[in-house]
Amino acid sequence: MTPSAVRSPARLSAGVKGHRTLLTSGGLVVLLAVFAVFPLVFPNPLATTYGFDALIFIAAASAWNIFSGYSGYLSLGHAVFFGSGMYTVAIGAKDWKLSGDTVFALLPLAAIVAAAVAVPVGLVALRVRRHTFVVITIAIFFIFQLMAFNFSFTGGTVGIDAPILNWAPGTYNDPFYYLAMVIAAVTLALSWLIRRSRFGLHLRAIRDDEDRARSLGVHPMRAKLGALVLSALITGLLGGLWYYFIAAVHPQSAFDPLFDLQLALMGFFGGLGTVFGPALGALILEPVQQWLTVQFTNDYLSEILLGAVFLLVIIFLPRGVLPTLGERITSLRSRSRDRSVPVTTADGGAVAEGAAPDGAPPDGTPPDMAAPGTSTASAPRPAGRREGTPS
Amino acid sequence: MAHQIYPAIADGILGGGVYALMAVGLTLIFGVLDIINVAQGILVIVGGYLSYVLSVHLHIDLFLGLLITMPAMFLLGLIIHTAVIRPLRGSERTSMSLLACFAVAIILEGALYWIFGANSITLNASYINSSFSLGGFYINDIYVYCFILAVALVAAIYLLLYRSRFGRGVRATMQDATAARLIGIDVNRVAAITFGIGVAVTAAGGMAYGATSGGFNPNSGYDLISRLLAIVILGGLGSIGGALVAAVFMITVESLVDIWSPNWAIVVFYAALVIVLTVRPSGLFGRKAVRAQ
User: Fold this and answer.
1) Is the pTM of this model over 0.80?
2) Cys-Cys crosslink for A364: which of A6, A232, A274, B140, Cβ 3.0 to 4.6 Å?
3) Do A308 and B91 touch (CB under 8 A)?
4) Residue B200 sits in which domain range?
5) Is residue B288 part of a domain?
6) For chain A (length 391 residues), average pLDDT per consecutive 10?
7) How many CB pairs under 8 A join A and B?
């Protein structure tokens, strides 16, 4: 053995890990920089509108993922929180006669109201198991849409127009864009922190096997409700921002079933339960969708194509782009490493090395593909921290 | 008040029959395949459009046309099952199939918009606008015909399930797919045929819906599926009797509230669902803990 090969497997794995974290964070910094200079390079309002759209969905899909991806409870009713945020700001601005830039002060209120809405919604909907949960979120979604249609304070079908902002048309989009960028970045950071935390571990244990998680001392209701409220908080904030951008709110635009579906599609496309998957899904799918709409000028054809893409993703990439990509890289890397560095330990360390630890997808080994010993439900180890193979 | 209440109850029961017809397919598919076919709403609309095409272009009677549309929808069901549902594997199968069905629904909705446009259409026949008088108030003939059709089809499904060899296989699969496979039941075949039957029934449901609802367009699928899901969940997923009772109950309540406020009638629908599930998380007739993961 050459001296360089005599590194202990643990150190090797830590080295690869550190390398990858560096790569990931480096990539994120570059991405953030790209997003930051995007409006400077393409000051065209159309381009910044696309950018703003993509950022809103990056944040919304990541927020959706914090609840649905980590806990495994698919919500098809997140538009409830988005719409609550929109209406909060709209009604607040109207009743308190706010105008101009001051209306932005209402954004935190939008987040708080959406979070407050999430508490009773969660207490009712989270009592049932997964299948039924999806349906209840749809039912609650329709209740909210109908309430928006029927109450007088929501303006009914007419909706509520936003106060006019006296900003220069050329740079009108920029404040929206940067605000959305900050929210998206904070959401991703939050998602990353949660995934590494004890809270995130609880959520993923629930996703694996709720009964077993309970027997291991996880309080499922508390964890699920916490995740839902946090997710709703961000979604409501985005709804408030979205309201100013489109400058009006109607029941159909605030509580839009396609919004729910898009979040789920983005989450699945990128990788459900991974930190960056849903953001990647939003980054790819939102512009594609815009492009399809513009390209074919036929809403129906673009709708069919969207459905077809969705179907192909589910059938051929059931775990999403990121985890599948991670798997490919893992198998390539572990194959080449097996040839150069024989890290076979007495108790079959090489097998474990190839199966789960270091080469696993950057942030999301779905529990069912992890090696038995590293299953999140049975091993109360912090997620993503791997102790390397026994030496 | 009474002169409004009795017709509302009659409407609720007769209309509930139509909803039961549409909901039975959904609950049957869930019972056997363990998936929630959210495309059921748009499939009902597809059935409605098929009946429309047959009656307008080929001048075939709505009820006779079912002899063509039901086998056609059965085939469509087999195709969807083979192409979309069957390839799904793994632990996330239930969630995935739900989304896959949603994707199918979007594709079908887009196709319907493309072919037929967004205008609302109605089914027409001589008996749709005629009515008869019963104890002082009027009932539309079509409601009665559709109710009879619904009862006949639900009874046929019931007989198929409880009085045939195939039905025994289906019930065995509903109870335990692995054990059913062990005793020699071709579970895949049972699943495919059940899916086909569940979709074929929507052809009749679509005709009945189109004839009684006073107009539909491709967008009606959303409203429909959310009501159907509410009915099926309320009745207990997988329970055919439960779906029947829940359908009649919900539509009756809705048409009663409709007297007081048409706008809020539909909210009552979902509110009832939320309330019932708060008390009984597995629905009115559901098995305790629908199925282990």
Assistant:
1) no
2) A274
3) no
4) 2-222
5) no
6) 43 55 77 82 81 92 93 90 92 80 82 93 84 82 84 78 73 84 92 92 90 88 94 94 86 83 86 88 84 72 80 79 80 70 45 40 42 39 39 34
7) 135
